[in-house]
TrEMBL record:
Bifunctional glycosyltransferase with both alpha-1,3-xylosyltransferase and beta-1,3-glucuronyltransferase activities involved in the maturation of alpha-dystroglycan (DAG1) by glycosylation leading to DAG1 binding to laminin G-like domain-containing extracellular proteins with high affinity and in a phosphorylated-O-mannosyl trisaccharide dependent manner. Elongates the glucuronyl-beta-1,4-xylose-beta disaccharide primer structure by adding repeating units [-3-Xylose-alpha-1,3-GlcA-beta-1-] to produce a heteropolysaccharide. Supports the maturation of DAG1 more effectively than LARGE1. The gene is Large2. Its cofactor is Mn(2+). One of its GO terms (biological process) is protein O-linked glycosylation via mannose. It is found in: Golgi apparatus membrane. Keywords: Glycoprotein, Glycosyltransferase, Golgi apparatus, Manganese, Membrane, Metal-binding, Multifunctional enzyme, Signal-anchor, Transferase, Transmembrane, Transmembrane helix. This is LARG2 glucuronyltransferase. It comes from Tyrannus savana. Pathway: Protein modification; protein glycosylation. In the C-terminal section; belongs to the glycosyltransferase 49 family. In the N-terminal section; belongs to the glycosyltransferase 8 family. It holds the Pfam family Glyco_transf_49.
Amino acid sequence: MLRSWRTKLKLLLATVTLAILLSWLYLFVGSLEYGRFLLLPPCLGEQPSRDVEREALASRVRRVEEENQQLRLQLSQAQMEGSDGSPQWGTSAEDGDLPGGERSNRTACPKQRTVHKCELLHVAIVCAGHNASRDVVTLVKSILFHRKNPLHFHFITDSVAHQILQTLFQSWMVPSVHVSFYNADDLKAGTCPSLCPAPSHCVALQPEVSWIPNKHYSGIYGLMKLTLTKALPSNLSKVIVLDTDITFATDIAELWAVFGKFSEKQVIGLVENQSDWYLGNLWKNHKPWPALGRGFNTGVILLLLDRLRHLGWEQMWRLTAERELMSMLSTSLADQDIFNAVIKQDPSLVYRLPCFWNVQLSDHTRSEQCYTELSDLKVIHWNSPKKLRVKNKHVEFFRNLYLTFLEYDGNLLRRELFGCAGLPSPPRDQLQQALEELDEDDPCYDFRQQHLTQHRIHLFFLQYEFLAFPNPTDVTLVAQLSMDRLQMLEAICKHWAGPISLALYMSDAEAQQFLRYAQASEVLSARRNVAYHIVYKEGQFYPINLLRNVALANTQTPYVFLTDIDFLPMYGLYDYLRNSIQQLELPQRKAALIVPAFETLHYRLTFPKSKAELLSMLDMGSLYTFRYHVWPKGHAPTDYAKWRTATMPYRVAWQPDFEPYVVVRRDCPRYDQRFVGFGWNKVSHIMELDAQEYELLVLPNAFMIHMPHAPSFDISKFRLSAGYRGCLQTLREEFHQDLSRRYGAAALKYLTAERSL
């Protein structure tokens, strides 16, 4: 036995040496004008062009390098073999090896493994809920970072993930990336929602698998990969299927190229399971589903869809599942159990992927045997419920790789593919044209560029419970913030019990800091009616009105309270506003309810519990009417003197520079996004409300208090830069012109009033 082992080791060493020499020979001969042709197989043509020659040579060199890598892996494994000469676990079949050691028939012309740089690659992902929608972004970033090909992502989603991911990809605008959605919740036989690519693709997915009892935490969505032959377009022949907890460390085109290694019978590419689950020895009376040896992990799957459809895949897996459920009663690992049962029945269906295509980081796995060096890694799979806290010898490296993509600036992934037009992107092309039409000599160029900037938007970043039937008088607090105002969140949640919609302006790294902060906060983590929408940073100005519009557009209640993050509403304001909406019969009238604003200069404040307490503090000088010292025109029309004694709502008239905080219907005019940074962002909105003939009604028993903070960067620029103030004046004049075009002669009063000041 020992002699046999030594002989095998010598053969492997000799093979590695020969392979290295051959690879250098390819490179040397390839540098000669005709030498390349001599090394190409006859089936490539007798007189290939230089481009074809070069591409074929590069392909063969890459192929040799891959084989060298596999040989090194086998060498390291051979060195660890036992004295009986049995192979160590972890070796992977290559070039179409079958489980029983059989090899597929090979022709004189081996299948090409290279992928053309403009070939469209298809990736399918099942994604449901807020957390998975957040996780899948890191996966997508890792793919985009390495990719050199156009991509088409196919997402099978619930309604939550569909809304989140559709908005994210539309706002991301990555060149040569197309996205399709297949909503497992809403698709019904015979109907075709707008998210469905074509009528023939509208199938009911949930009923296909809802009959299968599943103990796995993924629930019904953990079974959806079984339906892909039916869910995906019938003209789609092959697809890579990924779990959301995958991280790529290489170009996904390398994995796509493996399709070329399938034999005629192989239809599914999988990596062997790296735990002992399917061996049935984890605990006493452990009875897993049937599997071939250790079984296979379905975190990474290569599917030849056309062949599967031809084989009758739907009937195949369904009959297998029905048979096994008679004794197993339920699945433990969702779709993975059923895939393995099918493969156990017919091993010829599977192509064994090398295990570095799915390095499984769950506890008690043998994943370390999938690589001899960390540079060998291709795909990392965080398939333990512990995720980043999993035990592994090299977990620190894996964790850092994952965190790199987690916090990576997604804006940098908008790069065009070199030498490949890819897929058309009309919205991006229109935006690019608008940017090119800007005059760079315009003193206000930076403002106009910021207005046209397309920000990535991730809606509902944290868990949010949607309202099935909102109360007709319900109201949502709407605000926006950046990282430096994060400390206000807990206080606002304590003052306002109702729904909240917040737009947060952050970088990718800051968004993760916020996530950790919110999850660690007892106050924030206990709330499920606070919607956090991340608008990712880009440009030099704070896009305040874009943020307001994002938060406003994603409310559910009929009414919204438009405020700023540095204001604390009075205790009980939520209930008071709902009662006022009902008493004033707001559904039958067009009105904006004004909540009077006050401020304190003290960082520590005993918050008044009533109007009487507030008036007392106002008289003592511990509170002031908002901006009384620096900008009285902004809130003077509220008529604070009248408010002191008012017991009923009273109407006030619009005046120049009036910018109160109001409660309006959700379908109110949106904020004008040309105003970025500091200045005129609320004034313009109130002006448009007045132009649409909203009544301005001051509430007699409502108030809010502005808490002190350091001045923002944009207000500092406004105060210090004459050019900034000049551009703001230019934008105001342009806004007046647009208002006149929309509302005619009625809007002339605003320009006249401004000029009279």
